Amino acid sequence: MRILIIGGGIAGTAAALALDKAGFGVTVHEAHPDSGADIGAFLTLASNGMLALAQFGAAEAVARRGFELTAMRLTGDTGAVVSTVPLGETGDPLRRFRCLRRAELCAALREVAVSRGIEIRQGERFVTAVEDADGVTAEFADGTTARGDLLLGADGIHSVVRPLTDPEAAAPRYAGQRVFYGYSTEAAPPHEPGRIEMLRGSSSAMGYTVSPGGETYWFARVSADELSEDEIAGTTPAQWRERLLPLLRPDATPAADIVEATDGRLMVTNASDLASVGRWRTPRMLLVGDAAHAASPATGQGASMALEDAVVLAKSLRDAPDTASALEQYEELRRPRVERNIVNSARLTPRRAPGRLERTLKNYRAKWRGRGGGPHARSDSAAEEQELARQLDWDTPLAADSPAPQGS
Ligand SMILES: Cc1cc2nc3c(=O)[nH]c(=O)nc-3n(C[C@H](O)[C@H](O)[C@H](O)COP(=O)(O)OP(=O)(O)OC[C@H]3O[C@@H](n4cnc5c(N)ncnc54)[C@H](O)[C@@H]3O)c2cc1C
């Protein structure tokens, strides 16, 4: 089977690696003419994302580019520490949370893909596709076409493939917050290696961590109206800094000093997400990653979800008797999990800054969760994690009653 993958970001390149491992022929068609080595946002890959990467042999390459995060400390606006909790699975170094730039993650995935001979075609902007009984033909902006048996829409939140699987799907919606982020080698905030600091401010939710090389990576989420594209394009980093600082100054945390010490490497974007997309698939097309289920960034799970998608899809196509049942099984397994992430992330993205009482309650709940969240929460999440580990484990068939896969 030949699979056309539209989008060479996280979901697309990961899917290419997993599908290649499962024995399928894949070609990635990426709109950007180069590999996009811009400054860009950074992200944290959680233990579930690292576990997914390990299934198709990309965990080491990603781990080399990022640095470990093993703990998270939450501080309130008064400067009082609310809680310090371990992050994810810390036993196996390859399962630890990693912090790296999105471009570095894509570069690591691409490096592994190229080393395996997977074709990645840059500068091919997908415009539409036509499917028939024998296959699907993708059309690109430069007039070229490509033919395959299945087409994956891995083209992100503004997916061009999505209207083909679901003409009724709503456009991405503003989630209610602006996300500022930046990098500074001048800031010197209190830190410990491997710890991410979350600062619950009076008007912002900020996070920062310091890389082993001494660079502070930070983000700040602020509830406010949506920014227009013109405003984003026409505002300089120094102007953004001046707009953000008054929101941070009242707090007894290092937030304002970090932003003050940040030079031109300061950016802002709108936090957006997708309402549930009713139809992820047609007989020969399927959406994966943000194209199907973009969440606002608050849970920090979008990239990890895309990596999980890759493994579950490859296993579904490998194990199911035909493509139709594979795609059905894939959606059945993935939809509840990724849609829960959208809802959880939206809950953490309030459209207005919480008042002091709400913040106190939130901090209290966070502390409680950090201690295990009560017996119910613990057993539910343990069962879920066990099921996820089963779904991701490459050698375990997806359906509990299937025979073990050959030659893996
Ligand atoms: C500010 C911010 C912070 C975030 N932080 C985190 C975090 O800490 N942890 C985390 O896990 N996630 C985080 N996320 C979410 C994460 O970045 C996304 O979930 C992830 O990038 C989704 O990967 P994707 O491959 O589906 O989409 P994208 O990364 O958007 O990739 C889509 C690719 O498709 C290409 N493309 C688009 N249109 C076309 C076309 N017509 N033809 C061909 N190619 C096309 C694009 O050029 C791109 O390469 C964050 C997101 C934001 C905005």
- Supply the CATH architecture of the largest domain: 3-Layer(bba) Sandwich
What does the radius of gyration come to?
Answer: 21 Å
Query: What strand line-up does the widest sheet have?
Result: 6-5-14-15-16-13-17
Q: Please, what is the average pLDDT?
A: 91
Give the class from helix and strand content and strand pairing.
alpha/beta
According to CATH, what is the class of the largest domain? Alpha Beta
Please, how many domains? 2
**How far is the first residue's CA from the last residue's CA?**
18 Å
Would you identify the CATH H-level superfamily of the largest domain?
FAD/NAD(P)-binding domain
* Number of alpha- plus pi-helical segments: 13
Fold and architecture overview:
It is a single chain. A 7-stranded mixed β-sheet has the order 6-5-14-15-16-13-17, sandwiched between helices. The chain has a 6-stranded mixed β-sheet with strand order 8-2-1-12-19-18. The radius of gyration is 21 Å and the shape is globular. It is built from 13 helices and 19 strands. The protein has 2 domains: 2-37 and 48-67 and 98-172 and 274-350, FAD/NAD(P)-binding domain; 173-273, 2-Layer Sandwich (D-Amino Acid Oxidase, Chain A, domain 2), CATH 3.30.9. β18 and β19 form a beta hairpin. It is α/β, with parallel strands linked by helices. The structure holds flavin-adenine dinucleotide. This is Monooxygenase. Residues 3-342 form the FAD-binding domain.
